[in-house]
Amino acid sequence: MIIDQVGVVGGGLMGTGIARVCALAGADVVVCEADSGRAEAARVRTESSLRRAVSAGKITGADCAEALSRLRYTAILEELGDRELVIEAVVEDEPVKVELFAALDKTVSAPTAVLASNTSSIAITKLAAATTQPQRVVGLHFFNPVPALRLVELVPTLHTEASTIDRIERFASEDLQKIVIRSQDRAGFVVNALLTPYLLSAVRMLEAGFASAADIDQGMVEGCAHPLGPLSLADFVGLDILLAASNSMYEEFKDAQFAPPPLLLRMVESGLLGEKTGRGFFTYS
Ligand code: NAD
């Protein structure tokens, strides 16, 4: 393998998915959570997702058993000290991530070790600036659900060493069998910078009374062969997440296409966040 000693910080939705694909690829993985209760919850989440994959016929029982034997869980950051690559997937909160990168800088000792972030909207450059070795910091942006979606965005900063970029690209494409695209360190990277204005346009269209929510979605599903219409996709992503993404891109580019429409603001203020709250542009039972 290109890299076989991986650390994952944050064992939530994305961190457990990343840990699962790394362990299935053959890497030894240590998942670090904020406390021991959350580390245990991350273990339960990862193990049940691997077992569901066996039941669904996606992986064999032997693959599952081997992956489980390669996964460890901790609440002690120092246990990541020997890792060749640490992938950060904690909450999308800049001060939390900055503090964590400063701590990882001191903890992860090998000079060739790489510190990567799965952030969707925080500049990788800001995280690199919290370290003494910004040349070893890179963005590695996975998509949800991590085991199913093959894309990874690789985001070097102006400081990232060419050897680090190449090594992480080979790790993602050869070890994890992901499709890698490179993006400059800009809010939204490639995919969200293109997707967000599209989703916001659908919200504006609904807000203007141009068409119903069902017809907007059906138009894109049946007319463009999209698997989900834009308003269903916004509900799936979470309207609070869509709002945060559009705010961060609007702040970066000062371009009206990223400005959140009032309807989106009112829905988030009303707690109508999409599938996770049972109601967004559509209702869910
Ligand atoms: P989540 O809330 O499910 O998980 C975050 C986890 O981080 C929690 O389990 C929390 O306990 C843990 N955590 C917080 N502070 C910590 C610390 N100091 N040390 C260790 N663990 C800590 O969030 P998520 O959806 O998995 O998102 C994680 C990251 O991935 C965010 O940066 C997000 O922007 C990014 N991302 C999310 C998606 C998505 O669709 N959810 C997609 C791509 C990228």
Automatic annotation (TrEMBL):
Check the record and name the Pfam families matching this protein.
3HCDH, 3HCDH_N
Q: Please list the residue ranges annotated as the 3-hydroxyacyl-CoA dehydrogenase C-terminal domain.
A: 188-284
Q: Family, per the entry?
A: Belongs to the 3-hydroxyacyl-CoA dehydrogenase family.
Q: What is this protein called?
A: 3-hydroxybutyryl-CoA dehydrogenase
Q: Where is the 3-hydroxyacyl-CoA dehydrogenase NAD binding domain?
A: 5-185
Keywords (alphabetical) are: Oxidoreductase
Q: In which pathway does it act?
A: Lipid metabolism; butanoate metabolism
The lineage, from the top, is:
Bacteria, Bacillati, Actinomycetota, Actinomycetes, Mycobacteriales
The record's section on InterPro entries has: 3-OHacyl-CoA_DH, 3-OHacyl-CoA_DH_NAD-bd, 3HC_DH_C, 6-PGluconate_DH-like_C_sf, 6PGD_dom2, NAD(P)-bd_dom_sf
